[in-house]
Amino acid sequence: EVLTQDSPGCGYGDGWWQINLGNFLSPWTAGEILHVEFYNRANGETGNLDITLEYLGQTTDINLGLTECRCDFYPADGDIDGTDLAIFANSFGSAYGDESYKPWLDLNNDNIIDNGDLVIFAAEFGRNECP
């Protein structure tokens, strides 16, 4: 069974996620494992978390902050700046098969470099501590 942030009693607010276990169609018992998959829309980062269910409720944390610098395109100089923006802008609007399409600029892997990728790029723009 899958619950999303749009499921009743579930969602994101003030920096935390809430999952209302009462919304599952099938009953659960204490000791069962809830597998949670997170997706950060801003940068495409994912995380997984397994929680052992208890009847008293619990809080478990996972950090989905920015880690790698996927947008430090060229030269890989440790920051995401105007040079990277120019490279990204040159392929913006292109799709798989187009001459200007560069797969490494398709940050959300949907075969088109569009607003979805721009959101990811914008979240990283200005970073200067890239590994």
Kindly describe this structure:
With 131 residues, the chain is α+β, with helices and mostly antiparallel strands. The chain is built from 2 helices and 4 strands; from the N terminus they run ββββαα. It has helices at residues 82-91, 115-124, and strands at residues 11-13, 16-18, 33-39, 46-52. The strands form 2 sheets. A two-stranded antiparallel ribbon has the order 1-2. A two-stranded antiparallel ribbon has the order 3-4. The radius of gyration is 19 Å and the shape is elongated. The termini are far apart. The model has no long low-confidence stretch (mean pLDDT 77).
Rounded radius of gyration (Å): 19 Å
Overall structural class, as computed from helix and strand content, comes to: alpha+beta
Number of separate helices = 2
Q: How many strand segments?
A: 4
Largest sheet: 2 strands, antiparallel
Share of β-strand residues? 15-25%
List the helices and strands and how they pair.
Layout lengths: L10 E3 L2 E3 L14 E7 L6 E7 L29 H10 L23 H10 L7
Antiparallel strand pairs: 1-2, 3-4
Short key terms for the protein model shown above:
single chain, 2 helices, two-stranded antiparallel sheet, elongated, two-stranded antiparallel ribbon, 131 residues, alpha+beta
Write a brief caption for the model.
The chain has 131 residues and is an alpha+beta fold.
